[in-house]
Amino acid sequence: MLVLPIHPSFWQFCRVPDAAQATLSLLRSQLPPFRALHPSRVMSTSSQAPDWSPQQYLLFQTPRNRPIHDLLTFLTTHRSTSKYSPTRIIDLGCGPGNSTSLLAPRFPNATITGVDSSPAMLATARITLPQVEFVQADAKEYEPPLGTDLVFSNAMFHWLRSRDRIPTVERLVKGLEPGKGVFAMQVPDNFDEPSHRAMRETAAVQGTVWSEYFAGSRSGDGDERPELDPIEPEMAWYDILQPLCRSVETWTTRYVHVLDGHRDIVEWVRGTGLQPFLNRLPPDQSVRDAFLQEYQRRLEAGYPRARDGKVLLGYPRRFLVAYR
């Protein structure tokens, strides 16, 4: 995962029944108006490279957490004759700690380490979960410590290019103890969804104020292109991991999120897949506004409103659990 610290009281709201609404209200109260967010970039003090915004990401925390709950439920109920109880967990791509905060109460006796490449995301995670160790590292190079029996990864591996994605997972699985280690992940699988097609289509429109910023970065033009690579077919994952594992389980769940309107889709993806597109644009507000207006126009064509005016955002996610 896959960012500025949020208010320290944020997680207090997660302990009450109205957690989702309270959290959303708190986060929105701290965010500037929509226009001021357009350069959705937080600069790392070390590299001056664009970093993630945890506030933006956590605006939709409750629906983003659904697949985490589902993956944890699978781990604790499937193929288990006794309670699943890992003792050393790596939360790879932990982001602002939302996945770590769900792992900790589910496995209270485990030592958990959160790992992410984003300094800003880790800053938020350390504030919200001061009792947990968080480490900055690149997933392509990270080596879990000896004794790790669960590598858990929520919405991170889709950020790796295709050439690195399966080899990185293969390396991590090989490092787990046979007969004990488990690798579990979920990633969005939405390359062909209207929300993500519209990003590519908007960037490709010629003769616009943003055209020059996407020149030379069309689909298939190497690492500089802003869109992420599609998730590989299930068979590609299975054929690589099956020789290393007792069992490999994989499935896709299509979530449908009910949103108030198309502007909410924009805000959702601004915390994730749209950010690399926005990062290519200049600080000029008029350019960014024009890009986002055209993007939203395409969303309106791709997502008709329900009878009550709501918009249904389909969001498929791929799950994979490999038992070493």
TrEMBL record:
<protein>
    <recommendedName>
        <fullName>Methyltransferase domain-containing protein</fullName>
    </recommendedName>
</protein>
<dbReference type="InterPro" id="IPR029063">
    <property type="entry name" value="SAM-dependent_MTases_sf"/>
</dbReference>
<dbReference type="InterPro" id="IPR041698">
    <property type="entry name" value="Methyltransf_25"/>
</dbReference>
<dbReference type="Pfam" id="PF13649">
    <property type="entry name" value="Methyltransf_25"/>
</dbReference>
<keyword id="KW-0808">Transferase</keyword>
<feature type="domain" description="Methyltransferase">
    <location>
        <begin position="89"/>
        <end position="179"/>
    </location>
</feature>
<keyword id="KW-0489">Methyltransferase</keyword>
<dbReference type="InterPro" id="IPR023149">
    <property type="entry name" value="Trans_acon_MeTrfase_C"/>
</dbReference>
